[in-house]
Amino acid sequence: MIDPHAANARVTADPMTADPVAADPITANPGAPDPHDHPHPTERAHPASRELPAYGTGHELRHAAHHAAVVLSEVTAGYDERAALTDITVAVATGTLLAVFGPNGGGKSTFLKVIAGLLKPWSGHVHVLGAEPGREARRVAYVPQAEQVDWEFPVSVWDVVVMGRYPRLGMFRRPGAADRRAVADALELVGMADHAQTQIGRLSGGQRRRAFLARALAADPDLYLLDEPVTGVDPTTQEDLMRILEAETRRGKTVIATTHDLAAAAEHFEDVLALNRTVIAHGRSDLVLDRDVLSRTYGGHLLVLGGEPLLVDDPHHHDQPPGREQHFHDGTHR
Fold this sequence. Notes:
Elements: H1 4-11, H2 59-67, E1 68-79, E2 82-93, E3 97-101, H3 108-116, E4 123-128, E5 140-143, H4 157-162, H5 166-169, H6 177-189, H7 205-218, E6 223-227, H8 235-250, E7 254-258, H9 262-268, E8 271-275, E9 279-284, H10 291-298, E10 302-305, E11 308-311
Parallel strand pairs: 3-7, 3-8, 5-6, 6-7
Antiparallel strand pairs: 1-2, 1-4, 8-9, 10-11
């Protein structure tokens, strides 16, 4: 049984002063130059063409940290005494559109929470936008799964999207003209300007996804962490949301999104991460069509009918089930 308390003691140690065995391999020598001697292609090249290592420690991991938006090194995390993630080592390059897929309870939501700084890992090291998780919170937009939102709360769509500006405003500052303009632009971009004054609980499933993406857009982050952003929505909404996210990565933003829709992952995302409590595979999006990768990722949840793989999975299982769940699909609410 893993002792989370002992592990936390290792994680909270200052990597600049801790015992060398526990030191963070990424920041052990923060002033060192990028430890590589090969050129990188232009920033517009696909991340897989930038020779960015996905795994490794020491030299490789420090190299990755110079070019990545997110780096996890030997990370284990969970709830109470149950590990949801084990020995996760991965680097996500800046400007990547990454889909995280895997079975229910496989750690996808936990993976996002660790990056967002909402869950401290028991062991290992995490760097987000060059700092510890949470240090650059105003540059990160995290959107949880829809059922984790209290849809009965008496706020309008406009109010929800304004919340995306709060990290930039700081304490006790009211939104100004620039903030209102950012909110209006985000609502227009996601096609929700006509619903600005609608109470969020009256929205359909697809409209709710649009509203919360607008909140993320209004924050103007460098990193998007989106938990099931297109689950249960109609094809038009899916296409619209993915088009927006693709445009954000062209602007140099990084998008990490969990998904159950492997067809959408193959069609819309550049890279994928197969996750089942640990990293199964990480690479180009055609990995979701690889039967061996799917078999190792889903195990008994994968059936083969007529020579084609078929997933049997419950899209509403969570790494840590919330006490009260309500599930909404497009066209239905309350």
